[in-house]
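Re: folding output
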Amino acid sequence: MRNWHGEGIWYGADYNPEQWPEETWAEDVALMSRAGVNLVSVGIFSWALLEPAPGRYEFDWLDRALDLLHAGGIDVDLATATASPPPWLAHRHAETLPRRADGTILWPGGRQAYCPSSPIFRERSLALVEAVAGRYADHPAVVMWHVSNELGCHNVHCYCDVSAEAFRRWLRERYGDLDTLNAAWGTTFWSQRYHDWAEINPPRSAPTFANPTQQLDFLRFSSDEQRAQLRAERELLTRLAPQPVTTNFMIGTGIKYMDYHSWASDVDLVANDHYLVAAHPRPHVELALAADHTRGVAGGGPWLLMEHSTSAVNWQPRNVAKTPGQLRRNSLAHVARGADGVLFFQWRASRAGAEKFHSALVPHAGSETKVFGEVCRLGADLKALAEVRGSRVEADVAILFDYEAWWGVELDSHPSVDVTYVDRLAALHGALWRAGVTADVVHPSADLSRYRLVLVPTLYLVRDAHAAALRRYVAAGGTALVTYFSGIVDEHDHIRLGGYPGAFRDLLGVRTEEFFPLPADERVHLDDGATADVWTEWLHAEGAEVLSSYADGPLSGVPALTRHAVGVGAAWYVGTRLDEAATDRLVARLLTEAGVRPPVPAPAGVEVVRRRSADRSWLFVINHTDAEARVAVTGTELLGGGRCVSELVVPAGEVAVVREEPAKEVRCSSSNGRTPSWS
């Protein structure tokens, strides 16, 4: 891995000078300097300009743009420009276009109109990478390479004949022979046994449910094909240029089909795009989950926020603008949770195209606006936080997350369509957020020994090695919680026989003989006062202590929550979908048992996260409420509040960051650009 750390926090945006008259560029650089911008991503969607015809390259405009940025002190994350092919590629090679499962061709006119398995696309894209890297490897502005852009955002699955042949090759490498594949796919069911590799296709539209393992393998294959493009470009860049290489992941609750845990080793730094979902009731909590997951993909180390928005986006049904101060809170929340850079899409709001109503650092109304004023304030904040760069987030709790489990649990013909993967993940993470506790969201293969508490939400598909690792963790003194519909199948989506929850049955000391999913809108009550819905199951305690049972519903008297002592640790199981209040109470019990506390106590709605280096620590306090908040901390407030002793006062909607030191006796206020108040 090539080192990507420098001085200070990166700050900037996607910059698309090709969309604007060249006389605008000097103004852009001047405004960037005013805002504190020090890094921009350039060239992401410029293939059609850089290569207007096959093999004919035109770099003059990009030369001038990079030279101007360098003269203005702005570093560049230079894109390979392969994110979307030019119209001439499809015109000459229609076979490169992707197809849906029903055979519909996806034509040019948007973006990413290419089959990920197309050898023609791969050849032409790598030729462009070689030309761009060969020209700019030594350019002084270029500090990083940006492979493609949001790989798989719109074309992650292609069902064309080219993809079908690539899928067969992938299957040969995975299984070796047809007997092994037939066993893995359970093809004795519904007369599906294959006798020739040529008989196998992607799971195209069929009369009824497709083979579930075929579907699962196609999802694995599709993620691997996107990863293959990343690896091919990265290999070429590594050979031709000295700068570190990244690409922008899309880690969040809505992006499902790229296995980013497997991709992380292919980049020098993990970068992520995150956008608030306007319809989410608590978008800042969902933001925290995405950031914690990104940090988990990055192995706990710092990462780069490559894109988020200054205000509204353009692609949701209702694109809600951010309220005053929200831009700053969102950005600094990412930094609190490990980001060492904050970038946006995009620098200047577009005049034309599908994203013309997407917000930017410089809006259509210009620089004398609320948005640009907040952009400048954030730039000053990030400059003041330079010393935080390279530190790590403190977390004593892990939440296990596996993309394959997500894919598996949401396949068709399951007990209930209401059981979804992200649901319990978000519920448990939200309970931790409300308790003021930070969690790492990590893959089941991660080292769990450093955590006091491990949460396992809906891990439907689990490998033997990962189940064994969780048992070792608990036996050694850890505390774990497993939720319903976990441990059910192996990596081939085959049921683990002998009773649910399969792989975790012995660890949890329980056995479920039958699922009893609930009808829509039906609720049951537990004897501890909790309310639950969606799911119940006929559970038997086989060594576990019963903590609560159903008080009504189809399984009145049957255990719903259990605890099983294993070695010197304990494994808890919840066999139903608890409401939010009951989930909060359960998580509070787990935190108490595991000895986990928040960094400092804080009022409800106030986010507190600690980052730590070898010799220093910083406390981020983000006030999402409309009242001032007081937290006990002593140190230096870096965003304008000066030194605080014993108590920090954070005004409504504001953010404070304190370099901590031992407590003394008076208090200070976080000014955040206001006049400090001392007492």
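--- second protein (sequence, then structure) ---
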Amino acid sequence: MTTLTGIPVSSGIAIGKALILKESKQEISKKTIENIDIEKMRFEKARKEGIRQIDAIYKKTLKSLGEEKAAVFHAHKMMIEDMELVKSVENYIEENNCNVEYALHEVTKNLILLFKQMDNEYMRERAADLQDIEGRLQKILSGNVEEDLSHIEEPVILIAEDLTPSQTAQMDTTKILGFITELGGKTSHAGIFAKTLGIPAIVGVNNNLLEKLSNNQKVAFDGSTGEIYIDPTKEQLQILGHKLDEHKEYIKKINQVKGKSAKTIDGFTIELAGNIGNPKEAKYVLDNEGCGIGLFRTEFLYMGKEGLPSEEEQFKAYKSVATLMKEKPVIIRTLDIGGDKQLDYLEMPKEMNPFLGFRAIRLCLKKEDIFKTQLRAILRASVYGNLKVMFPMICSMEELNKAKELLEKAKLELEKENIPFNSNIEIGMMIETPATAVLADLFIKEVDFFSIGTNDLVQYTLAVDRINEHVSNLYSPYNPAVLRLIKNTIEAAKNNNKWVGICGEAASDPLLIPVWLYFGVNELSMSPNLLMEAKWIIRSISNKQLDENIRNILLLNSGSEIKEALIKLNKEIL
């Protein structure tokens, strides 16, 4: 029996036979060629076939996982079509009189090395995209067939050095019990796809994993802790089996709340809404009995494209969601680009600290034409449902006033053009920085509602880059400073008879839901697949239970102490 540990990226228990995915390492050697034009033609033919394959994967992923996850393959297509890459490979062939395989390998190798040397983990992970693209083109050039993970015959735990986005997207989820990779981090595509698909997964196992395992060997692991057992003992199997049984029973309990309201035992009702990244995901919110959409991330209408979406394109997207949701509220967050979300076609400055730089509302207020186009589209769609508009990353009253001024200008334009819109559309703002949380009592007088974005609020409060692996252990929504800022924000809204919600990842945290109830938040918005669990937790507790417990917990000095106390409370009340 061998025990290993890795980075947990998708929770759940997996027990089964190992299937080792060993990529055949292609020996790419330099060859002197006689005809440069033939090599260029071979490259062009491989590119066209690569684009065809990526288009097929994109369509399949779009159908199964939605636009947000499929966007990575649109990005792959853009990379293959990038004329700078094409020219670099062709120039290398000419200058070195060599075969296309070698030229492609050398060009991409240098680009991959550049990505891997970057300080930002997110950008380092993008090296996997380039490796995926090069691997695809090399296989096409050599005539090799790509490993097909959609036709595995029996349930297995997949073991690999790494999994490309293409491989992960094509998995047959009925046969993959879970997967473990030697490489990867929390922001790797493999981990993101696993979480979306509901497959337990561990990455970053730096212990020569492939050498320690053979096909059909028994493996068990816990995707929430990162613990892996090779040839597990009976005792370990019993412990994990018990955890698996508990999880299945938990799912049964959760499913019992279908058709019921999100109301505590003593009658306090809270709204549970869904976060979406594209119009197609709105259906999942309704399927999971969401009361509306608490966050429509509009940046995904801009990503994975060759240019800015038109007003008409945006209008149709917003209208489709408004129409589907009918009277249910839909909060549309205006463009939040920057930080870890970039647009290739939009000239953005290279920044040392992009999360503290030219992003979100800052970008929109500088590029008024882009912002106005979006505001017009939102306003036009507002007559088809209960739409609300929300500004992200507000840090000052000047920014908020400028954003509201541009919204009024968009209204005047539509009025002159005799285009209908809801003149009383509600205006909200994200609370994502300590500046706005501290001054919440002033900001709330200028808007109709707040929505607390905990992902960035934690990051900015604790000065922790949430995608930097070296400091990610310091990122904690349980930190008392973060909780005090959230409490202050909610109290400011309540004192002014305004509505306040939470739409960051912490909104769905089972340990923190009792805290949000104690604070008196009006709405929690989360991924649609987490709505039922949140409802079950809410229906299992009473505010009377929380009053004394949460009050004492919030007096603790550290995030780790608070988390431990919340774990204990969670066991007592659920």
